[in-house]
Design goal:
The protein is of the alpha+beta class. 47% of the residues lie in helices and 14% in strands. The chain contains 17 helices and twelve strands. It has helices at residues 19-22, 26-38, 62-74, 82-101, 108-126, 129-136, 140-165, 172-180, 207-225, 231-238, 262-268, 312-331, 336-343, 349-352, 372-378, 417-444, 463-472; strands at 51-55, 58-61, 189-190, 194-201, 250-254, 280-282, 285-295, 298-306, 390-393, 399-409, 413-414, 450-452. It has a four-stranded antiparallel beta sheet with strand order 5-8-7-6, sandwiched between helices. A three-stranded antiparallel beta sheet has the order 2-1-12. A three-stranded antiparallel beta sheet has the order 4-10-9. α5 (108-126) packs across α7 and α8 packs across α16. The longest helix has 28 residues, at 417-444. The termini are far apart.
Length: 473
């Protein structure tokens, strides 16, 4: 799929508590809140249900417990005990209740964006919007409504957690004390890792070539409007978007989708059913867009993308420009960060300072996490040196020129304070935050109205809740 609307991985906020206090390890807790956030659409809502837990004015239903356990199993996990699941749900509800008291802000736009993200994820899993609706037995609109409250509560709980720990800091002395407590045979082992910076420039096509692409698109539009050709047929023949070409240029999009090109989105939602846009220019090239159908903020569209072809002349000009930047870097007249801001055409570079990022957000990568084009350039580089400008082809099939800086390279090693201080400090900070959460929770539990069904009275991990329930009742 062309990154007009780049694919995104479904992200789930976690609300983690110390396993010794709450009798729930982090892995299980992730699954619990994953399920609270998604609340499996494959299960139909139960008309008559049983309330098994209450925190304040928030209720937990028996069906939620059953659905959560079933979903963990369906995803390949081991079925958690219902005692563990209800504990996690009580924790979540308590955070939500306190978040409401403290007026923790949750943006409607952020909730809508996450709902759309989850819908896109499931559409991707099942192949199409129609398949998702058939499997779930619910329309896209109904699924969005099902997600709305769980996602809002999830964000409120995370916002409350962030507020509790926002002022927690850690000192170097505390980091060392944390490290010294780790058994030597439990220290992590790291493969060789690298930090890599990249500056990218994309050659600009000549005006004549751009005009040719525009003229082609205008001709396609004329033929469709005259009934000579179908839009989908022309998209299959001529579109430069590999992600939609085989589908006749078709995409399902929603107004709240923030990862789509804003110019593209603005053009889409100006169209009426059946209408074709004039030629528009985005960061990916030139397009015409046809509105197939629209339902409120959701739309099915087709588009044809033409990427103006780059000649050797434009590539050579770009190589010369980037070689000049490399010279400035070597003689120290500009820093790498300044060069990224001033020259890089990578739209993500301003957020990463040009650093290549792993999926977990780390700037430390192993060789197998890097693009093959980057790996080739690293072969002869020493730490602190820069590659010569080199032509490459990105994941959209677009030719660019880049230079690479090898910022650091570690040898395979056992974790130690000198080489891995930041990682160790982050884990130490998380442990300190956990303790702050424990203290906060211990003080707050007695302020909540708690009710737990008798079916869960055997759960020893709920003793902290049951003691409050007894005193409040």
């Amino acid at each position: 799929m062309l990154n007009i609307g780049s694919s995104s991985t479904m992200s789930i906020d976690e609300t983690n508590f110390d396993p010794h206090m709450f009798d729930m390890n982090r892995t299980l807790l992730f699954f619990v809140f994953l399920l609270i956030g998604l609340n499996s659409f494959s299960q139909q809502k139960v008309v008559a249900d049983k309330i098994v837990g209450i925190v304040g004015d928030k209720i937990i239903l028996k069906s939620e417990i059953s659905t959560a356990i079933s979903d963990v199993v369906r995803q390949g996990g081991q079925a958690p005990e219902d005692c563990q699941v209800i504990d996690g749900m009580l924790i979540q509800k308590a955070l939500v209740v306190q978040a409401e008291k403290d007026s923790i802000p949750v943006s409607d736009d952020d909730v809508e964006a996450e709902i759309d993200q989850k819908i896109r994820y499931f559409i991707g899993q099942y192949g199409s919007k129609e398949a998702l609706e058939q499997i779930s037995g619910r329309t896209i609109y109904q699924l969005k409504e099902d997600f709305r409250q769980p996602i809002r509560e999830q964000r409120m709980a995370q916002g409350m957690r962030n507020k509790v720990v926002e002022n927690v800091r850690i000192t170097p002395t505390e980091v060392k004390e944390y490290y010294d407590k780790i058994p030597k045979d439990s220290l992590h082992f790291y493969e060789s890792e690298l930090q890599v910076g990249e500056i990218v420039m994309y050659p600009k096509a000549s005006r004549d070539i751009e005009k040719l692409a525009i003229d082609d698109l205008n001709e396609y539009k004329r033929k469709v409007e005259a009934g000579i050709n179908k839009f989908a047929d022309l998209a299959r023949l001529y579109s430069d978007d590999p992600g939609s070409r085989d589908r006749g240029g078709e995409y399902d999009i929603s107004r709240g989708d923030k990862q789509w090109d804003p110019v593209f989105m603005a053009a889409v939602f100006r169209l009426k059913d059946g209408q074709i846009s004039p030629v528009i220019k985005t960061q990916f090239g030139y397009h015409i867009i046809q509105m197939v159908s629209r339902n409120g903020d959701d739309a099915k569209i087709r588009h044809i993308l033409r990427i103006p072809q780059i000649t050797d002349a434009e590539i050579n000009i770009t190589i010369q420009k980037l070689d000049s930047v490399r010279t400035q870097l070597i003689d120290g007249s500009i820093s790498f960060g300044e060069a990224v801001v001033k020259y890089s055409d990578d739209p993500q570079a301003k957020f990463t300072a040009g650093l290549k990022m792993a999926r977990d957000g780390s700037t430390y990568l192993t060789i197998d996490q890097l693009d093959k084009d980057v790996v080739k350039l690293l072969g002869n580089l020493k730490v602190g040196s820069y590659s010569k400008p080199t032509v490459f082809t990105d994941d959209r099939g677009k030719k660019g020129v880049h230079i690479i800086e090898l910022i650091s390279k570690s040898a395979p090693h056992r974790e130690n304070l000198q080489d891995d201080y930041n990682r160790i400090a982050q884990r130490a900070l998380e442990e300190k935050k956990q303790k702050a959460l424990e203290q906060w929770f211990t003080s707050k539990i007695p302020t909540f109205y708690i009710l737990i069904d008798k079916d869960y009275q055997h759960c020893h991990n709920l003793d902290k809740w049951k003691s409050v329930m007894v005193s409040n009742n």
